[in-house]
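Still learning. Any example?
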Amino acid sequence: MDNQQVLEAGGQQKKLFLRPGSLTFNDPYPAVKNGIWVYFFLLIFEGGLRKWVLPGLAAPLLIVRDPVAIWLIVIAWRRGLLKSNFSLSATFAISIFGLVTALIYGHGNLLVGIYGVRTLLLHFVLIFIIGNVFNRDDVLKIGKAMIWITIPMTILLILQFYSPQSAWVNLGIGADTGGGGFSGALGYFRPPGTFSFINGTVLFYSLSACFILYFWFSPKRYIKRPLLIAASVAVAIAIPMSISRSLFFMVAFTGIFVLIGFARNARRTGTMITAALVILTIFLVLSQLTFFQTATEAFSTRLTNASEIEGGFSGTFGNRYLGSLLNAFNVSGDFPFFGYGIGMGTNVGSQLLTGEVNFLIAEGEWGRLVGELGLVMGLAIILTRVGLTVKIAILAFKKLSVGDFLPWILTSYCFLTVPQGQWAQPTTLGFSVFVAGLTIAAFSVQKQEKKQEGNDLIAGRMPRLFT
């Protein structure tokens, strides 16, 4: 039985091996897929383990996903699921060389250096394992799981928002009675949900919004409409309840991608109008409820106060995103040629070197990379991540011409997390690599003439547009 017969008999689209030029379909490998699901659930509930379940092990649980990542890499390598490509080779070489220069010219601490390699390389490899092992059906299953989790997560957010910081639901890491919330507005704190910090809430709901929008605009009924409406209500509540501008901006950014998608393929204009009316109705109904009005007032107050300080939306966007990127190069002349050493810019590195958690180099990701590795190696890592994101975006945009919105919607998430997400923070690192892997897995390679296009992305080759 040839590959095409296997494809038709199985009724599922199989992805290609991570091997340049390969047209061989892979086997399902349920053990590897189960490992990816374990990584996914640990990503969401790791903070809960550190706050409520095993607070005495809060420190080691910070890297609870690392053993899973190592196991996935080992078994994927042994089964031929992980082959060399440009992105992996470049990141591997820079990680090893960066460790050597950190020990010779930088901070000189082996543990800090190893943790830096872990941050830079270990989880990055999972992008290609997930992208190769998962198929489109697996991505949709993750989306359905997100939909289900979104509802109880929002209930938890409401409890955290209206409870004092000393309440059990608001315990901090290690069962800290000082609370895990972060300063918000009008006396209310930004609730972290099941995560260690508010960034987990932002990343979780941003991904949920991607799947909710896709399910609304998809012509197929992947999930029941009442569940989709309930999840939409949950995200609508979570946006003001989080008192987070980042969540608002990320969801809005995904909305812009949706509009671009419909401009590219206008056959679903009716679907877009219907979904827009449903979402508008949800907000109108919620706006009549007191608990939602209170959260909205706190959220709008934070937006106003922050905008006054940073100079409106353009100032906020410039300072938070573009400003942090450009600042990395403005201060690069102050850094040693080989940087201060890989791992020094992470919280764990700071704790090991100084006994305190501080931003020893820079809070922004690009500034941290350049400060740790120096301008040459730091810029190489930045370009590697930007290049991977651009290649994903190009292929996702092409998919719009045939009405495939899933990769494009997920690409909106990758745009904000893969190139310059704060990977020194474990939750941000986990969500960034996981969604990048899902986006690659979402590409459905079915026709013979489309196979090489998928290989070019997975093998790390630059699309023809750049050659």
The chain is about 65% helix and 0% strand.
